[in-house]
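New to this. Look over this protein:
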Amino acid sequence: GKSGSGKSTFIDNLIKYNNLIDDGIVFIESNHERYPISSNMVSIVPQFYDIFPGSIAQNIIGLETSLDKSNVDLDLFYKAITISKVDSFAKSFDECKSIYLGMSDSKKLSGGQLQRLSLARAIYEDRLIYIFDEVTSALDKSTSEDIVDNILMSMRDKILLFITHSEIIQKKCNFAYYIDGEKLREHTRHV
């Protein structure tokens, strides 16, 4: 849909609505299986991301989690920074622990780097359903394509929903829908 047509609002309302009702009312279907949506199954990468004062590692694994390696799923951590390409500016867990954000003397990251950090946080949550709201809007075309390819290749066992204006992303998805006024319509593809 066009900018301002309600794509992000539709998803926000779907998630908020489902949190008020019992499981079994709202479903996502994938591979002929039905999954009730509940908040512990969904990870959202919002269009506008929050970065917390703390290290890159804390922004990925959570502020309340100890940074002791025994408390961190390092395989999942490295998967998250690889898929999101955070590893292009913070290559290891120790480096991610040492780079601080959100304080006067902290490292300044670009909008694209912050967007990748938000994506890494969502991947680290390891949920069944991922909703990516304009997940590559702050990235150049090449980095955007690399990250979307990483997501699609590495997360085949997940349900992925992209809210996007990018025709490149739309073409990589199994289904495409658009918002037309107050209706959700399937996008006709010309292959």
Q: What stands out?
A: The longest helix spans residues 7-20. The CA atoms of residues 83 and 153 lie 9 Å apart.
